[in-house]
Amino acid sequence: MRFDIVTIFPAMIEQPLAAGILGRAIERRVLDVRVHDLRDFTTDRHRVVDDMPYGGGPGMVLKPEPLFRALDAIEADAGRPRAVVLTSPQGVRFTQDEARRLSGLPHVVLLCGRYEGVDERVRARVTDEISIGDYVLSGGELPALVVLDAVARLVPGVVGDERSVVEDSFSRGLLDFPQYTRPAELTAAGLAEPAAGRVPEVLLSGNHAAIRRWRKREALSRTLDRRPDLLAGAELDAEEREILRELERLRSERGA
Ligand code: SAH
Q1: Which residues contact 10 (CB under 8 A, 6 or more apart)?
Q2: 135 lines ligand 1 (CB under 6 A)
Q3: What pTM value is reported for the model?
Q4: What are the two backbone dihedrals, phi and then psi, of residue 7, each rounded to the nearest 5 degrees?
Q5: Per-residue DSSP letters for 71-110?
Q6: Is ligand 1 within 6 A of the CB of residue 140?
Q7: pLDDT bucket at 162, cuts 50 / 70 / 90
Q8: If you count Cβ atoms within 10 Å of the first and of the last residue's Cβ in the chain, which end, N or C, has fewer?
Q9: CA 65 / ligand 1 centre spacing (Å)
Q10: At 111, is the secondary structure helix, strand, or coil?
Q11: How many angstroms is it from 113 CA to the middle of ligand 1?
């Protein structure tokens, strides 16, 4: 899958991409990520990318022409991209479903805003406007990395073991179950009670059916506690529906 990212701070994108799963996927050429410096698409001696807003007011606005030229160059090189994403706090809230949709495309362009944002006319060439949450950042670089990371790990071959992606939080509308690793008994200070230092017995039992059921129960219980809103859209199997009914019954008894 190919990504083109347009930014005035290429280093903010390139450095994080060198490490971890994404770095390896780029090395193995499963991902092709091109970072473009918006200043390379200016025509003036000072390589100016911003200008004052018409109508006055504080801050600067990213000029439209360099962004258009950057898009033209990407199109000339790779054909018209299936998605041109503008990062913006005014966009549609980014979710795992949105990440999944984008991961099915061969080529995605991400535009990073700065200052007060981009000239409104740029939106004519944008297919998707995405916000990563209801807060304002100083630039689109972190949002572009968030989108890139979430999308890329859904591309086959990027994450080593595909099963881990399938079981992640949100992938079926549930939060993930709790994870433990060695040691089985933790005597470290700071634990409220000794029992809190022990890995749940069932995980050590070797009984795979019991482990599977325990994990389903924990995932459902967590989702019910922390994000009950997710359950409406969750894809549950018969066993999970049964466990959920039981959890809800227990809760209403406790509440009553
Ligand atoms: N004045 C603008 C905010 C500009 S913030 C407004 O109120 O809409 C500068 C840039 O940071 C934006 O152009 C966008 O690219 C990026 N950005 C800031 N917050 C973001 C968010 N929550 N999601 C995605 N991009 C964001």
Answers
A1: 35, 36, 37
A2: yes
A3: 0.94
A4: -155, 160
A5: HHHHHHHH-S-SEEEEEEEEEEEP-HHHHHHHHTSSEEEE
A6: yes
A7: confident
A8: C
A9: 19
A10: strand
A11: 6
